[in-house]
């Protein structure tokens, strides 16, 4: 485990040098905006979500606004997003609980967040890490692929990958590491044809199928 921690620290340091300005791609200015944007972002590009949220966040400012909205109107407002009907329903149901149970404020506790309708650990951790500044590891498809290829996690289950990463990544780097793995996964360690020969963490990568230099 000590060795894995050292490897993780080296990987993070190299990726920090490669991506010095990395941050969350989704635009938001409050925990509620980030919660809504993250719900919309499932199986959709962050760019499309940012395009939609620019208008959406001007119209819906409080959880109460989503709660009161007619579902067909909210659906129309997010209709360019994949699975917009399900997502509009989730946003509305979430906001109903936020208004009725949390006085209109998005909770800042993992158990409370994951008790909201349709909210899993990934979404909850994105909100905790980026809107509340609490160290949190959100395992999306990029974090999952990059961390398993690098040998920092072995599970196929995102919740277990989160636990494995929490063991080897320094707590203060949890949120940043997600951003770094997402950037690395998008630009270099892509699902198909990763650019291994130019990868800055090539020498530390344990993936048996990595493309040889
Ligand atoms: S060497 Fe290849 S598989 Fe390993 S992290 Fe780099 S890009 Fe990904």
Topology readout:
Layout: H1 2-18, H2 31-41, H3 46-59, H4 63-68, H5 71-77, H6 84-102, H7 110-114, H8 121-130, H9 141-149, H10 158-168, H11 174-187
Helix pairs in contact: 2-3, 2-8, 5-6, 9-11
The chain binds iron/sulfur cluster (SF4).
Polypeptide structure, described:
There is one protein chain. By secondary structure, this protein is mainly α. It has 2 domains: 2-23 and 137-204, Helix-hairpin-Helix base-excision DNA repair enzymes (C-terminal) (Endonuclease Iii, domain 2, Orthogonal Bundle); 31-130, Hypothetical protein, domain 2 (Endonuclease III, domain 1, Orthogonal Bundle), CATH 1.10.340. 58% of the residues lie in helices and 0% in strands. It has 11 helices and no strands. It has helices spanning 2-18, 31-41, 46-59, 63-68, 71-77, 84-102, 110-114, 121-130, 141-149, 158-168, 174-187. Helix 2 (31-41) packs across helix 3 and helix 5 (71-77) packs across helix 6 (84-102). The two termini are 28 Å apart. Iron/sulfur cluster (SF4) binds next to loops.
Short characterization:
The protein is 58% helix and 0% strand. It is mostly helical and 213 residues long. α2 crosses α3 (46-59) and α5 packs across α6 (84-102).
Main β-sheet description? none
What is the count of β-strands?
0
Per DSSP, the total helix count is 11
Broad CATH class of the largest domain: Mainly Alpha
* Mean pLDDT rating: 97
CATH architecture of the largest domain: Orthogonal Bundle
CATH homolog superfamily of the largest domain: Hypothetical protein, domain 2
């Amino acid at each position: 485990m000590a060795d894995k921690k050292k490897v993780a620290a080296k990987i993070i340091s190299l990726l920090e040098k490669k991506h010095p300005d990395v941050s969350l791609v989704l635009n938001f200015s409050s925990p509620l905006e980030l919660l809504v944007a993250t719900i919309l972002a499932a199986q959709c590009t962050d760019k499309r979500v940012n395009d939609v949220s620019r208008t959406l966040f001007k119209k819906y400012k409080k959880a109460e606004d989503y709660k009161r909205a007619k579902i067909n109107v909210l659906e129309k407002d997010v209709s360019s997003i994949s699975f917009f009907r399900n997502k509009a329903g989730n946003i509305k149901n979430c906001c109903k609980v936020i208004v009725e149970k949390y006085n209109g404020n998005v909770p800042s506790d993992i158990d409370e967040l994951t008790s909201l309708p349709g909210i899993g650990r990934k979404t909850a951790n994105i909100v905790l890490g980026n809107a509340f500044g609490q160290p949190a590891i959100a395992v999306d498809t990029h974090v999952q692929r990059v961390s398993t290829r690098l040998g920092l996690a072995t599970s196929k289950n995102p919740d277990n990958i989160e636990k494995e990463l929490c063991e080897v990544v320094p707590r203060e780097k949890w949120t940043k590491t997600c951003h770094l793995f997402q950037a690395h996964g998008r630009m270099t360690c892509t699902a198909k044809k990763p650019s291994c020969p130019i990868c800055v963490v090539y020498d530390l990568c344990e993936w048996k199928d990595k493309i040889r230099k």
